[in-house]
């Protein structure tokens, strides 16, 4: 029989023997632990939600890995590379590659009767994955582009449509600059909105074949390839595989392939996501410190109020180690109770936000219009285990107070 555990259970279950000071001390320690756990759960779920939401939008626009011309600059005006079926099949044959699609980008000027705006026209082919755009479609429909026929339909963002005061079904002229100014009339088929303003303010989607003709390229030339991987956690390994396969290779027209990841293309956005991790660590450390302080205070109060009991146990032959274990077990019961309440409160708030979107945000600043939530069960379990272990460890030193209590004096202690 575990004697310290038995005594701790009897003390924790007892309600009549709890004294006037220890009862509020236990309550405060439980509340402190519960609030700390709830705050940590909410912080982690919010940050995971932000990172997942922003990453999914970045991957939706540019996939995980991109292949482009070695001479490609930050300009939307791109240099061509060969992107025919043979090149795409080489990439598809690599492990963990889930999808490959072609694209062409070309700057243009949108003009209506009273407004004009410079944007990047992104041409996509029939193999393009429309699932991301469908998820963020606001109005109209997404054009289905073919590499056999040239389409005059385009998909624009809500911010561009609002600035130009245009809607689905309207006709608009696109002007392309070069040795001569060329114009092409498009019909707005649909409007999307992702709240990722770096893209919404700049990109419209059109037919790949039309841009091949506008650029004067060969039919097998494109601006680049967008590659999606099956597991983002293995993107580094997948990137290395693609680099070894085609990076630096020369196509039939003498152009060199260059491979890069989405993180290399948009380092500022991923750096911002990295700062969110630092904020979470600060919150976790502060909450653990607060919870640890309240538990230490509560344990010391309980030990002092149980001085008589400690003296009697020592007189009966109990060792300092076994008595320390009694109070550590007792503290674990309090911590466990606080963790249960904290999980209920924290997960409850997260679920309310996830399904009812109670708290809204400025999409211009945060790229989302509501606070995103991502609940990872494994992360929550690990958080509870780490909190329990750290909370118990910080109580080990205060528990040594029982070794300074003498049986003869403590039995008469009031």
Walk me through this protein's architecture:
By secondary structure, this protein is an alpha+beta fold. It has 2 domains: 3-57 and 269-411, no CATH class; 71-255, no CATH class. Helix content is 52%, strand content 18%. The protein has 16 helices and 12 strands. It has helices spanning 3-13, 22-62, 85-92, 131-135, 158-164, 197-200, 208-215, 235-246, 262-265, 267-305, 307-315, 320-356, 363-366, 377-393, 396-399, 407-411; strands at 65-69, 81-82, 97-111, 116-124, 137-140, 153-157, 171-176, 182-192, 203-207, 221-222, 224-229, 257-261. Helix 2 (22-62) packs antiparallel against helix 10 and helix 12 (320-356) packs antiparallel against helix 14 (377-393). 34% of the residues are buried.
List keywords for this structure.
alpha+beta, ten-stranded mixed beta sheet, 2 domains, two-stranded antiparallel ribbon, 414 residues, 52% helix, 16 helices
């Amino acid at each position: 029989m575990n004697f310290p555990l038995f005594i701790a259970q009897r003390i924790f279950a007892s309600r009549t023997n709890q004294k006037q000071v220890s009862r509020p001390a236990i309550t405060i320690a439980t509340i402190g632990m519960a609030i700390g756990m709830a705050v940590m759960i909410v912080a982690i779920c919010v940050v995971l939600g932000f990172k997942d939401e922003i990453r999914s939008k970045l991957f939706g626009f540019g996939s995980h890995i991109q292949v482009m011309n070695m001479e490609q600059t930050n300009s939307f005006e791109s240099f061509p590379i060969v992107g025919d079926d043979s090149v795409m099949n080489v990439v598809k044959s690599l492990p963990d590659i889930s999808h490959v699609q072609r694209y062409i980008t070309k700057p243009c000027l949108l003009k209506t009767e009273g407004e004009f705006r410079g944007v990047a026209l992104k041409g996509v082919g029939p193999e393009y994955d429309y699932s991301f755009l469908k998820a963020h479609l606001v109005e109209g429909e997404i054009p289905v582009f073919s590499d056999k026929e040239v389409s005059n339909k385009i998909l624009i963002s809500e911010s561009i449509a609002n600035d130009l005061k245009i809607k689905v079904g309207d006709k608009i002229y696109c002007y392309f600059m070069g040795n001569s100014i060329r114009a092409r009339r498009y019909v707005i088929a649909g409007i999307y909105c992702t709240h990722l303003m770096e893209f919404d303010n700049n990109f419209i989607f059109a037919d790949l074949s039309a841009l091949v003709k506008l650029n004067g390229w060969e039919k097998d030339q494109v601006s680049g390839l967008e590659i999606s991987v099956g597991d983002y956690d293995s993107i580094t390994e997948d990137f290395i595989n693609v680099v070894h396969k085609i990076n630096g290779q020369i196509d039939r027209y003498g152009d060199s392939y260059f491979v890069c990841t989405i993180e290399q293309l948009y380092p500022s956005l991923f750096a911002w996501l990295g700062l969110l991790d630092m904020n979470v660590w600060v919150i976790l450390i502060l909450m653990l410190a607060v919870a640890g302080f309240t538990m230490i205070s509560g344990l010391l109060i309980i030990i002092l109020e149980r001085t008589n009991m400690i003296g009697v146990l020592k007189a009966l032959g109990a060792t300092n180690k076994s008595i320390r274990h009694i109070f550590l077990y007792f503290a674990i019961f309090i911590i466990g109770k606080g963790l249960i309440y904290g999980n209920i409160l924290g997960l409850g708030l997260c679920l309310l936000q996830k399904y009812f979107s109670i708290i809204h945000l400025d999409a211009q600043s945060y790229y989302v219009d509501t606070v995103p939530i991502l609940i990872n069960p494994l992360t929550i379990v690990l958080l509870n285990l780490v909190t329990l272990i750290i909370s118990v460890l910080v109580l080990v030193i205060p528990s040594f107070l029982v070794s300074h209590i003498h049986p003869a004096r403590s039995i008469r202690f009031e």
